Amino acid sequence: MKIFITGVAGFLGSHLADTFLAKGHQVVGCDNLIGGYLDNVPAKVEFHQYDCTFFNSMVKIMKDVDVVYHTAATAYEGLSVFSPHVVTKNIVDASVSVMTAAIVNKVKRFVLCSSMARYGTNAVPFREDMVPQPQDPYGIGKYSTELFLKNLCEIHGMEYVIAVPHNIIGPRQKYDDPYRNVASIMINMMLQGRQPIIYGDGNQKRCSFVLRAVINSVKSRMYSCSS
Predict the structure, then answer these.
(1) Virtual torsion, Cα 166, 171, 173, 175, nearest 10 deg
(2) For the chain, is the Cβ count within 10 Å smaller at the N or the C terminus?
(3) Residue 206 confidence (pLDDT)
(4) DSSP for 29-90?
(5) Least trusted range by pLDDT, from 26-40, 153-167, 188-202
(6) How far apart are CA 140 and CA 92, in angstroms?
């Protein structure tokens, strides 16, 4: 198939591209490089440095595409409270632009990467059957893109899937962002010999897998630095 990935220079998008290329699919992708790096883009990807809000460009580079994976996002939840316009533009406007371009090109399926921010004030642990209660502009924006997608796909007959990643970590993630991704923040501080900050009483839980991954990642990075 011909697969289109937004945010292909980012952590999630580049790994998806690797997987699809390994399975023999053709991959086209775009990224505005706000949070991604050209080095992340696999060599066989047909890459375009476009912002998702550039609707005409999205229509042009999405020709003959079978499936769209929309992973691009300015995932700055804390910033969204102070700059709601920036986040709304890069979450809601950008997503609707990509969805509309997919409809114009008669794409068969659209996969939207939403966010756990959609659950907001719900009690933890979150469950998929919970009614979303987002508590900040970022969460509201992410949930609204889900509603846009459902509505547009029902009207135009495009298949859709909504994925809600939780704490995804691994190679190519950003380690220089002090505002998001608790795992990379802790890794960054430990590599500097600093003490990670744990808020609350220390008894709260997120995911034991994340904790193990943080420890393993620190060990591997320290080994590569020493060697």
Answers:
(1) 120
(2) C
(3) 58
(4) EE--SSS--GGGS-TTSEEE---TT-HHHHHHHTTT-SEEEE------HHHHTT-HHHHHII
(5) 188-202
(6) 9
Catalytic residue among 138, 160, 179, 223: 138
Handedness of CA 71, 57, 151, 155 (dihedral sign): negative
How far apart are alpha carbons 120 and 212 in whole angstroms? Answer: 26
Coil, strand, or helix at residue 114?
coil
Exposed/middle/buried for 82, CB within 10 Å: 0-12, 13-18, 19+?
exposed
Catalytic residue at 138? yes
**Tens-digit pLDDT profile for residues 51-105:** 999 999 999 999 999 999 999 998 878 788 888 998 899 999 999 999 999 999 9
